[in-house]
Design a protein that fits this description.
Strands 7-6-8-9-11-10-15 form a seven-stranded mixed sheet, sandwiched between helices. Helix 5 packs parallel to helix 6 (about 150-160) and helix 13 packs parallel to helix 19. The chain is α/β, with parallel strands linked by helices. The chain is built from 24 helices and 17 strands.
């Protein structure tokens, strides 16, 4: 049946039995496809019926669906003409794992970070109003995104604007007591039934025509209705915020979903529909371990076993183990995360020190200022957070932490290229957005041992400090290079002349590959592991400028505002001339999806790319001189 479905119009005439069969086929297609490409499986398996019902009841693309985070939009993509592209899901030049307006007119708003859907949907709805439109606007939010403060800012504003807006809370965590479930379903049916809505409006219109008695009757009607909801409905918080609450309803019951969606289409004002779903629905392994199959690599469909997973520790695990060891000796050390305990390697810390572990949920702004409060009272908070998500808390870093020189440690995971999740998740901006903040110290380790040493240093350093490290297996290269971490000092990997390669973090491996290629051209490169991206090692900058004609900076981040830019500033401000500085990094654009290896090669940042860039610049200079 799925082979005959290309666009939402193809399911409009299906009966309930056919829709249920289609849901089964979609689940099989999802499991089969994602097992080959990797991707967000559990969250999509949980919204199969919900997505089908939305496309069945509403008229896309005239009606607009805005997906929060967007990693649960795979079924939406299958139903909107992109089914055949799933063989290249999250691959270079392939189908994105998130909504992308450039891919399809059915993707209204790009997403990747959480808690944005209600704000965006409200903007879209108000634009519709201003243009005199009548279409429906639906925000689908869930999977923890309601823990983000932005969602509540949007709810507050939506109630004030009082426009027609549908918010669907896809709830796969919150539990509703059984003793109120039946009554809630009854009231949901009653309040979305067209006869009830028409009767209520008729009563109110009639009562308003009777000046005194009518107004009092209407007042009493509302009081009775609100009193009943207070005792019987689990969604009073949304009612009090100005939303008409409907639910909870079974997110895997197509007939119930279709009935509610058809009925709410005639309702006015802001509505919130509470839908209960099961993450990983229909695939035993994903149901049992939804976190494991949230964002999953390739796996065996029959056994659920991951393919190509190495036993070697990744940087997150190295960080978590080291921090736990340090916390055993220092009771002031605390660990914080924003709904990423597993992803940031903090599960063992959480288990051993539950009172010293804090998960602030998807609330990075709060997490940073919470850390500041802890630090100003003598604690040592270590906030483990993905680079791309720390962006959300920029003002708090500037105002609440750095301005006060507080001893907060930022463990910045997934710094640099992360790969398949694409533009919204590439951690290429942190060097630029952190290194210009006063009182910030920024480090980047070349391997797992240096990460451990940097954590030792960070615990002793009394001010704000950030350590950025990449996703993936922790490097075990350069084991013999274990110089002590000294504030603001780099590490020379090899001495040389003519060309100096100044690399940050794991990019030192690519720098050494380029140095080997240069050696074949009788050029012995000076190779430096910068370690500190702020402050820069001014002594090594002077030394390399004195002995080398070319200075090449190499970073896993954007060039604009990166550490290469800081090197240029240093030479300019100190009147150091006669040296050619080549800044290698990512250009002024959002970096697309692809494997890290593909992207480093594409942008000339692998060993060969660095070598080719140097040879090209040297050749150009030689031509000019001749």
């Amino acid at each position: 049946m799925l082979n005959e479905i290309d666009f939402p119009k193809d399911i409009k005439n299906m009966n309930e039995k056919a829709l249920k069969q289609l849901a089964k086929e979609i689940r099989y297609f999802l499991i089969k496809s994602v097992s080959k490409t990797g991707g967000h499986l559990a969250s999509n398996l949980g919204v199969v019926e919900l997505t089908l019902a939305l496309h069945y009841c509403f008229d896309l693309p005239d009606d607009k669906i805005i997906w929060d985070v967007g990693h649960q939009a795979y079924i939406h993509k299958i139903l909107t003409g992109r089914k055949k592209q799933f063989c290249k899901l999250r691959q270079l030049n392939g189908l994105s794992g998130f909504p992308k307006p450039h891919e399809s007119e059915y993707d209204v708003f790009a997403a990747g970070h959480s808690s944005t859907s209600i704000s965006a949907a409200l903007g879209i709805a108000k634009a519709r109003d201003l243009k005199g439109g009548q279409n429906h606007v639906i925000a689908v939010i869930g999977d923890g995104a309601m823990s983000g403060g932005l969602a509540y800012e949007a709810l507050n504003n939506a109630a004030k604007e009082n426009t027609n807006l549908i918010v669907i809370l896809n709830d796969n965590e919150m539990s509703i007591s059984n003793n109120v479930g039946a009554m809630s379903r009854y009231l949901t049916h009653l309040r979305t039934d067209s006869a009830y809505i028409q009767a209520k409006e008729s009563f109110q219109n009639f009562s308003k025509k009777i000046p005194v008695v009518g107004n009092m009757a209407n007042f009493l009607f509302d009081k009775m209705r609100l009193s009943a909801k207070f005792f019987l409905l689990p969604g009073m918080i949304f009612e009090e915020m100005g939303f008409h609450y409907i639910g909870p309803i079974n997110g895997h019951n197509l007939s119930e979903l279709n009935e509610v969606f058809q009925n709410v289409k005639q309702m006015r004002g802001p509505l919130l529909i509470h839908v209960k779903t099961k993450k990983g629905k229909g695939y035993r392994y994903a149901e049992q371990q939804p976190s494991k199959y949230h964002g999953v690599s390739k796996f065996d469909m029959k056994t659920g076993e991951l393919i190509g997973v190495t036993d070697k520790q990744d940087y997150s695990a190295v960080f978590g183990k080291k921090l736990t060891e340090l916390a055993e000796k220092n009771t002031n050390i605390l660990a914080l995360t924003a709904a990423m305990a597993s992803g940031t390697g903090l599960l063992d810390f959480q288990k051993k020190f539950p009172k010293r572990f804090f998960d602030v949920a998807i609330a990075e702004q709060h997490g940073v200022t919470f850390s500041a409060g802890l630090a100003c009272q003598g604690m040592i908070p270590v906030f483990a957070v993905y680079s791309t998500f720390l962006q959300r808390a920029y003002d708090q870093i500037v105002h609440d932490v750095c301005m006060q020189k507080l001893h907060v440690i930022f463990a910045i995971d997934r710094a640099g290229i992360v790969g398949a999740d694409g533009e919204t998740h590439q951690g290429v901006f942190d060097i630029a957005y952190l290194s210009h903040i006063p009182n910030m110290t920024l480090l980047s380790p070349k391997n797992k041992w240096e990460l451990q040493n940097m954590l030792d240093f960070a615990i002793q350093y009394p001010h704000t400090i950030a350590i950025r490290y990449p996703r993936g297996t922790a490097s075990e290269q350069f084991e013999k290079y274990r110089q002590q971490i000294v504030y603001g000092k780099s590490e020379v990997i090899q001495y040389g002349e003519k060309v100096a390669l100044l690399a940050e973090g794991h990019m030192i491996a690519f720098a050494m590959e380029a140095a080997e290629k240069l050696k074949q051209q009788n050029i012995n490169a000076f190779v430096v592991n910068m370690r500190f991206l702020k402050p820069l090692d001014e002594e090594i900058l002077k030394k390399t400028a004195n002995c080398c004609e070319y200075i090449v900076t190499i970073e896993d981040g954007i060039k604009q505002g990166g550490f290469g830019s800081k090197v240029l500033e240093y030479y300019s401000e100190n009147n150091i001339y006669g040296v050619k500085v080549i800044c290698l990094g990512f250009p002024d654009k959002y970096i697309e999806q692809g494997t890290p290896q593909e992207l480093y090669k594409l942008y000339g940042l692998d060993g060969d790319g660095i070598y080719q860039n140097i040879i090209k610049i040297m050749s150009l200079k030689g031509k000019k001189e001749s």
